[in-house]
UniProtKB/TrEMBL annotation:
Listed name of the protein: Copper-containing nitrite reductase
SUPFAM superfamilies in the record: Cupredoxins (SSF49503)
Species whose genome carries this gene: Ardenticatena maritima
Boundaries of every EfeO-type cupredoxin-like domain copy: 30-110
EC category name: oxidoreductase
Superkingdom field: Bacteria
InterPro entries for the chain: BlueCu_1_BS, Cu-oxidase-like_N, Cu-oxidase_fam, Cu_oxidase_CS, Cupredoxin, EfeO_Cupredoxin, NO2-reductase_Cu
Protein family according to the UniProt entry: Belongs to the multicopper oxidase family.
Subunit structure: Homotrimer.
The keyword Oxidoreductase is assigned to this record: yes
A molecular function (GO) term: copper ion binding
Taxonomic lineage of the native organism: Bacteria, Bacillati, Chloroflexota, Ardenticatenia, Ardenticatenales
Length: 431
């Protein structure tokens, strides 16, 4: 059975004056040789093994029937996940003949969970992880292909999920979604992925705009404190999702590791007055919607596809606040780059009180746009580009028209400022 971990550790194989062994990476075990891993009974434990010396290795915990694949090349990774369902001391070791005897062995100590419980009911405050919808690069325009360098850093942050509620997000560059990447067809993209030294997890990136195995994930499995680079050519115009692709992939995505990359067609996109960047995601917490305090990730709810929160740009109601609501003027044409990180729910994207003048279905920028569309379907791992002209002032509400999701935080505001247009919309009967 697959589990989503409650506790994660990263170990790196090492050949030093101490002999063969495992080095702790990140957290309380950072730098420790064959560290003792202490976990509470009942926790789901994930151990990621990084090959640090280029020899063949694995990791096994036979008492919990956990056995990893072999890692042969330096930098390769493998992961085991198991439930610590019994108390005691248990060995973890490398099962390659002779390696355990040479020193590759440590202990896992499973203890009864302490009686002291988290306050939980008290309000909690975390960092603002909401990506402002105006935070996106300018249009590429009509230029020749070039080499574009993109720098991303994965960071694990306790962020504000809702009023009084916090959650540990895994992010690209500290916000949800990750930064919007904007290139043109024919560009060569050199992507640098760095993992913050304070991270507990290995992270990576899979860009749906990439032609090549794993979309970049095979080259970017990056342990804490390290950096990987790969290069790809943008062959197909369109608006594409990117996300972390480190096992368990759904866990990384649900924690906020997704974004969009726009590959503009030759000559660029037609100009508009305003552009916004919005993505939909799901968050699976152990506590129920609205419960205060710090919330842990829920294994069972993810597997059942029953999120407690659905969000635009990372937080419940994140695009309704004064800091992040969208603003435009009557008479302006608005373009929204919209994607679904997921990992599971399809969106029925709709703006209450507006009709999309143009919808680039499935984010195909080279097909004729659909016109006069009320609601458009966007699957997880998919995107769309919509455009509409604002003709009446007021507040327009972004929703998924599976409207029960609004009660779980899935809502955003677009304010249109300008003079009234009674010939289009007014209170009372017609004259």
């Amino acid at each position: 059975m697959d589990y989503i971990p409650d506790i994660t550790f990263t170990l790196q194989t090492s050949l030093s004056e101490k002999g063969l062994g495992f080095l702790g990476v990140g957290g309380d075990i950072d730098g420790e040789f064959n560290p003792t891993l202490v976990v509470p009974k009942g926790a789901v434990v994930q151990i990621t093994l990084v090959n640090g010396d280029g020899m063949e290795h694995d990791i096994t915990v036979p008492d919990f029937d956990a056995h990893s694949d072999h890692v042969v090349e330096k930098g390769a990774t493998t992961t085991i996940v198991f439930k610590a369902d019994k108390v005691g001391e248990f060995a973890y070791f490398c099962s390659i003949p002779g390696h355990r005897q040479a020193g590759m062995e440590g202990k896992i100590v499973v203890v009864e969970e302490g009686a002291e419980a988290s306050a939980g009911a008290e309000d909690a405050t975390g960092e603002d992880i909401v990506r402002d919808p105006t935070d996106l690069p300018p249009p590429v325009g009509d230029r020749e292909p070039q080499v574009v360098r993109v720098d991303l850093e994965t960071k694990e942050i306790v962020g504000q999920l809702a009023d009084g509620t916090t959650y540990t997000y895994w992010t690209f560059n500290g916000k949800v979604p990750g930064p919007m990447i904007r290139v043109r067809v024919g560009d060569t993209v050199e992507l640098h992925l760095k993992n913050d030294p304070n991270s507990k997890m290995t992270h990576s990136i899979d860009l749906h705009a990439v032609t090549g195995p794993g979309g970049g994930a095979v080259y970017t499995q990056t342990p804490p404190g390290e950096e990987n680079v790969f290069t790809f050519k943008a062959l197909n115009p369109g608006l594409y999702v990117y996300h972390c692709a480190t096992p368990m992939v759904a866990h990384h995505i649900a924690n906020g590791m997704y974004g969009l990359i726009l590959v503009e067609p030759e000559g660029g996109l037609p100009p508009v007055d305003r552009e916004f960047y919005v993505m939909q995601g799901e968050i699976y917490t152990q506590g129920k919607t609205g419960e205060k305090g710090f919330q842990e990730f829920s294994v069972e709810k993810l597997l059942a596809e029953e999120p407690e929160y659905l969000v635009f740009n990372g937080a419940a109601g994140g695009l309704t606040t004064e800091a992040h609501a969208m603003h435009a003027n009557v008479g302006e044409t608005v373009r929204i780059f919209f994607g679904v990180g997921g990992p599971n729910m399809t969106s029925s994207f709709h703006v209450i009180g507006e009709i999309f003048d143009r919808v680039y279905n499935q984010a195909s920028l080279t097909s004729p746009a659909l016109t006069d569309v009320q609601t458009t379907l966007v699957p997880p791992g998919g995107a769309t580009m919509v455009e509409f002209k604002l003709q009446v002032p007021g507040r327009y509400i972004l929703v998924d028209h599976a409207l029960s999701r609004l009660e779980k935080g899935l809502v955003g505001f677009l304010f249109a400022d300008g003079p009234d247009a009674p010939e289009i919309f007014k209170e009372g009967p017609a004259e």
